[in-house]
Task: inverse folding
């Protein structure tokens, strides 16, 4: 089992910044990449950014140039630095870690942290 705990959400004005953190614990040997998804009210959950243990990153087009994902492998922490925030970035942000459970691929999820951007 892997546990993911997010922190750092909150309310910010448009143009502002927030930094989200996610710490993994438990059977961390079973995970490699870590990342962030988000879900706005009435919308499907969508990928925001991912980073592998080697530091290879990928981003949704909507956040490229504004968001930066990074990780601390020693502490199994992943961060999402969000700059130039827009009202459309308002969502619950979830940390995700694809791994293995019971010998099969399994996505571990955090409980989510709310990000609200006011105009």
Result:
């Amino acid at each position: 089992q892997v546990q993911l705990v997010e922190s750092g959400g909150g309310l910010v004005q448009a143009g502002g910044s927030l930094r989200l953190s996610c710490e993994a614990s438990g059977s961390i040997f079973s995970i490699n990449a870590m990342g962030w998804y988000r879900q706005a009210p009435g919308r499907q959950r969508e990928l925001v950014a991912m980073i592998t243990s080697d530091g290879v990153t990928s981003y949704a087009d909507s956040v490229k140039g504004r968001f930066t994902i990074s990780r601390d492998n020693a502490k199994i922490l992943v961060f999402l630095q969000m700059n130039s925030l827009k009202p459309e970035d308002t969502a619950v942000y979830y940390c995700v870690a694809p791994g293995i459970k019971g010998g099969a691929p399994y996505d571990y999820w955090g409980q989510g942290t709310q990000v609200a951007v006011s105009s």
User: Anything to note?
Assistant: The chain has a mean pLDDT of 94.
